Amino acid sequence: MKKSVKVQSPATSANMGPGFDCLGMALDIWNSVEVTVGDNGVEISGEGHDSLPKGPSNLVHQSVVRVFEELGWNIPDFKLSCHNEIPLTRGLGSSSASLVGGLMAGNELCDGAFADDELLQIASEIEGHPDNVAPALYGGFRIAVNHNGRIISAPVPIPDGLAAVLFIPDVPMLTEEARGILPPEIQRADAVYNIGRAAMLVRAFASGDLALLDVATGDMLHQPARQTIFPAMKNMFRAAMAVGALGVFLSGAGSTVLALAQEKEFTIGYEMADAAAKSGIEGQVKITKPVSQGTHVVHSV
Ligand code: HSE
User: Fold this and answer.
1) Which atom of ligand 1 sits closest to the CA of residue 129?
2) What is the pTM of this model?
3) What is the mean pLDDT of the chain?
4) What dotted CATH number matches 4-156+290-300?
5) Pick from 186, 33, 188, 12: nearest CA to 102
């Protein structure tokens, strides 16, 4: 068994418009966790330092423990030092990053007992959101589907030079609440609308034909309902597209709005923030990019 392990895990943006619960990509915003065996406690700096639990109910802590439990090994005393750059409850996959980071750290402590695919199954079982968990684990753009209870995940290439302009509202959106308002049944026309666009989105990324993104990021399965609790969304979408965004969508269950762009990133961010402010929503703009690296070990002794 190792004594000290540090891992980093990326933010993720799930759904990407039409790919509700199936598509997600990793972003270049990172949480890190260092696990030291033989000590105790949970230290947190950055996002959530004053709100996240610092005891055994901490998600990173639980995830480290879970690896030992899965293996039937004795759980040692360990200390966690977490640094979080991923905002909480904003649709940027902070809980998936904590979960996958904890699992990866626990697994490394246990000398890499589980393969990545096994970690994916454990993570999806705990969190239930493979569209965040798969890109958090593997990085890049991932398709994730549930096949008879097993998560099957496949990568999609990401074109060079693609930026992600985020508007991160000060107001959170809780995933359970933003799921609770979705209608339980969908119209066939809406299913067709999304199937075609999800396929086109994958094609746009894989081929680099980014002109397709405008149409390919459209959605009828979750964004229209979510707009009822977040009316500013529509104006932000319009503002981003008016100044040259390639496509725009609600990141995960919100509240972050993500615009894809290859130029004018600062203008797009400014215009989204301005449109939000006109609807009474304050927040911050962050310009980042999709990232091919997923959760990884930084050091291990
Ligand atoms: N796909 C989820 C939702 C979010 O939109 O509710 C994260 O998995």
Assistant:
1) 8
2) 0.96
3) 96
4) 3.30.230.10
5) 33
